[in-house]
Amino acid sequence: MNQRPRLFLVITLLFFLLPVLILAAQSFSAPWRFPSGSGLDWELGSYEQLLQSPMLWKATFTSIWIGFIVLMLNVVIGVFTGKALTTVPLKGRPWVEALLLSPILIPVLAIAMGLHIFMIRAGLADTVLGVIIIHLVPTVPYSIKIFHNSYQQIGRAMLEQPHILGSGFFRQLFTIELPLLKPALRSVTFLTIVISLSQYAITAIIGGGRVLTLPLVFFPFLESADASVMSAFSLWFAVIPVVMYTLVEAVILLLPYSRLPWRNKR
Amino acid sequence: MKSFSLKPYLLFLPSVLFMLLPLYGLLTAVLNSFGRHRGWTLDYYRQIFESKRFVMSLAFSLQTALIATLLSILIGLVLTRSFYPILEKITPRVSVWIPMLFPHFVWGYLVILLLSETGVAAQLLTAAGWISDPQHFPVLTRDPHGIGIILTYVWKEVPLVILMLLPVYASIRPEYYALVDTLGGSVWNRITAVELPHLLPVLMETSLIIFSFTLSAYEVPALLGTTFPEMVSVLSYDWFYGSSWQKRPLAFAAMVSISFVLLVLSFIGYGYLNKARWRAVKGNRS
């Protein structure tokens, strides 16, 4: 039994931490040529090259903007549906749950191809709004699932209490539900942003190459940039969810019952 | 008088609006695959299933997705089962989830950086004298067997499997194990009598999610695959986005065929789960 933690440590270091450390080391040094006997050449050139690219900054802001709106819509749809699935009596509940999960079981590529013509007609093709809408498809089912689980953990008794005491929908939401949904909000933030950042094909189809997000810059970069720049770019992708997570954490602090100095005085 | 009230059902409004997107998208794709604008026909399906390129691609996609799914589930299950007391703590849990911080194609690039013929592993092995030249390193990325694609997917999905299974293991009450032990059961009995019934719904759902994703996602195969055989998603994307609009219906037919496979599988999966749940409620499990 004492072997267990050690084995776990070895597996984690080797398969989960080391790859990212190698990525970081490569991003801070010239492309490696070990067989020719050269070692590590520490430098910051790759970041200079990456961050000087105006396309990168534009794409970063577009991606963050899209990710933010997609996240807000996910929270709204997820909270409503999670509450509905927990409190509203339903026949054939398992099938409703399966149906709500189905958008991630159907290829999103097929959905995007199908919606493309509609987007052209509605004037949403090649626009940021169109891309935001299509990014909802692979993200919302996860959010619904996460919020549904959280609402079930809160339990119907807890949800009925404020209702019986006569508080309205939004008061229930902001004073009881959202504070208890904090862990769910964190998971949803994280998943939504990463999934939104992962979409190349559907962004290219609906955005028509006009809406430039980070993946659309990453793929062509592969042809031209060296290993150092690509590694720096790869790490750049992980920075965005972390920044977004921190921002959401700050917003969560504004909810009631958060540990804030000016609240604890009462 | 307060009879049937519609008000609570209003909570479903956002999700109903949202569901219109995928349903409309899929329906349009199906209609287009039957040649909506040029007269109804089965010709596009005949064309793709008669083309060797598509059939090979379909077989390759199914095989790659199946291997990636089974390996992810198996490795994730073994890791969660072996280490869940450790994974309850926050630091080990977060470190296992590191790959989830990166998009799939970024992890795909990492696999290229580490395991391509000019990659870090090949260079280190050459420098250490294990192989005489980096070119002797086995072809693991952009290979005809889909090894690179499978590696990337398994590496990325194992943390997801752990994420899904961990709450299940945490919720199994130790009394169940004690019961198996008092009745003289083995470790195998612990797995089949206690863990499997708890795990089955989650395992089924996770497998379906991973299989659908690996079968139909474009980014990773575009980065780590070859031109022959290629995944259906890459082929369809080429048909859809290629120079001539003539091939767009073929892209629709290909993606609809894949969707059909996935819908049938999901239906079987959820149907089986519902039946199992129903039997459990009735108390007749034999």
From TrEMBL, chain A:
Residues 60-248 form the ABC transmembrane type-1 domain. One of its GO terms (cellular component) is plasma membrane. Pfam families: BPD_transp_1. Keywords: Cell inner membrane, Cell membrane, Membrane, Transmembrane, Transmembrane helix, Transport. It is a multi-pass membrane protein. SUPFAM superfamilies: MetI-like (SSF161098). It comes from the Bacteria. PROSITE patterns: ABC_TM1 (PS50928). It is found in: Cell inner membrane; Cell membrane. InterPro entries: MetI-like (IPR000515), MetI-like_sf (IPR035906). The keyword tRNA-binding does not apply. One of its GO terms (biological process) is transmembrane transport. The keyword ATP-binding does not apply. The chain crosses the membrane at residues 64-86, 98-118, 124-144, 188-213, 233-257. Its main location: membrane. Belongs to the binding-protein-dependent transport system permease family. This is ABC transporter permease subunit.
